[in-house]
Amino acid sequence: MIILVILYDLHLPYANSLKDKRHIVQSLKDRLKTRLNLSVAEVDFQDTWQRCRLAAAWVGIDAAARQKIQVEVDKIVSSRDDVNITNVQTIDY
Questions:
Q1: pTM reported for the whole predicted model
Q2: What are 8-36's pLDDT values in tens digits?
Q3: CATH entry 3.30.70.1120 includes domain 2-92
Q4: Chain-wide mean pLDDT for the chain?
Q5: What is the mean pLDDT of residues 43-66?
Q6: Residue 1's Cα: distance from chain center in Å?
Q7: What's the start-to-end Cα distance of the chain, in Å?
Q8: In angstroms, what CA-CA distances link 54 with 3, 6, 44, 61, 62?
Q9: Measured between alpha carbons, how far is residue 92 from residues 45, 62, 70, 89 in Å?
């Protein structure tokens, strides 16, 4: 069994309130959940307007599928114009 956890530190330059931030983060979480069937959560900086740490988790049995999932997650997160990635940490179990 392979467990993949990807932590993204994000800067949200256009979020001028927690409501703006919530909208951006929820949209990103929904897209990752819908397209890739991942578990996604905001795990830090909940009270900071323009900063977010997002965790995406995936469980599978195939190393090739793990690599494909990681590439797809990176594509989806980096394709957003309203989100800048400041740091990415990948953890395998």
A1: 0.91
A2: 999 999 999 999 999 999 999 999 999 99
A3: yes
A4: 95
A5: 94
A6: 22
A7: 8
A8: 17, 8, 8, 24, 24
A9: 23, 13, 11, 10
Sorted by where each begins, the domain ranges of the chain are 2-92
Measured between alpha carbons, how far is residue 21 from residues 28, 43, 52, 63, 66 in Å? 11, 14, 9, 34, 29
Q: Give the span between the Cα atoms of 39 and 61, in whole angstroms.
A: 16
What's the CA gap between 30 and 40, in Å, rounded?
A: 8
Euclidean distance between CA atoms 37 and 44, whole angstroms: 22
Residue labelled with tokens 């900063």: 51
Helix axes 63-78, 18-36, angle to 10 degrees: 150
With tokens 């956890």, the residue in question is 5
